Amino acid sequence: MSDQQVEIKEKQSRNLVFNGTGSGYFRVCIVNLLLIIITFGLFSAWALVRSKRYLYSHTELSGSRFGYHATGRSLFASWLCMFIYIIALEGGVIGRHTLVAVCLGAVLILFMPYLLVQSLRYQLQSTTLNNVRFNFRCSGFKAWWVMLGCPLIMMLGVIVVCTLIMATCRSVSVFELDRLIITGVIAFVVGVLGMAIVQGVSAALWLNLLFNHLSFGKNNFSANISIKKFVTISLISTLILIPVLLIVLKLEVPAYIAILSHEGDPEAIATILESSGTTMLVGYLIYMFGILLVASFLYVTMRNYYYKTVSFSEKFTFRSTLTITGFFSQLIINTLITACTLGLGYPWARVRYCRYLAQNTWVDGDLDELDLQDHNEKIANDIVSRLSRGLAPNISF
């Protein structure tokens, strides 16, 4: 046997396969829509479960299909409790019960990361592959730091730096307008780049938290995602977006200034809209194009990178082979399909998207060595776990 044959035998590659159809998913969606209308929205939780069960059951790896076993009743109870809590919080604000509103808001902010972790754990324990469940175990404090503490501190740091930059113009006179404008631009650029850094750090911390506490059966996943790499990707995406925003501002701002200068004169405003309508539409389309392009760059580049860092049971690795042009075309075509059919084409668009992701998601390793022993942990039934089950119903890798 040649070295190449030995290598192929020792390390095999399999991609996910999605075999759902637009017509099949359309039937699920249309029934869901009718039942949601009939029940005045109360069926939404069950509709979500039915949709996810269809998508999961039509996704397979080497002949083994995924399963989704969460219940609509669990999600509905969680949503109902959260709705009541938000109504109480809003009532405290509207009724000017400051102490009540502050306490409810503080509790929500402080405990939300823990609740999201419990929700994520429920969703993963309800997800199976070949009847083996996934799981997620993470401490509440670590989740709070990654989801809230660290991002909040970094954002405050960016705000402080921008404030200090603007403070240098505190004593500027009206005759130094150029200096004020330059300082404002510098503060804006620093703020935008600072938020890009916050985004990169937060995404890297979150994905490290997710994969290093994720398990399948009795075996664990692991990942070593570079914060520096994610920050670089985030900064590049911001630099791509800035020229787009400048073009849009150049097209849109003159028209808006003209409209504001003729406030109270409907005829003049109508004339401005008639003469500038095409330009404003072009500006809006360029803006949407730029947003979709940057979103495609961010998602594809980050996904392709972090998949290479993830391993399972020290025997299996993963690859993502998405391309920016391929993903971008998916977004454009699927948006057009949905918009041009007034939403009726959404099931076909969703199926196209799921099939594209599956075709470009690979598992490297001999699947015959995959340990298919399920873990022994049961789904928690305490009050906090029950209340949190519907907070993070969608998980995307």
Automatic annotation (TrEMBL):
Q: Does the keyword Transmembrane apply?
A: yes
Highest taxon of source:
Bacteria
Q: Which InterPro entries match?
A: DUF898
Indicate the transmembrane segments per the record. 25-49, 70-88, 94-117, 143-168, 180-209, 230-249, 281-301, 322-349
* Keywords, alphabetical: Membrane, Transmembrane, Transmembrane helix
Protein name listed in UniProt: Putative membrane protein
Origin organism is Buttiauxella brennerae ATCC 51605
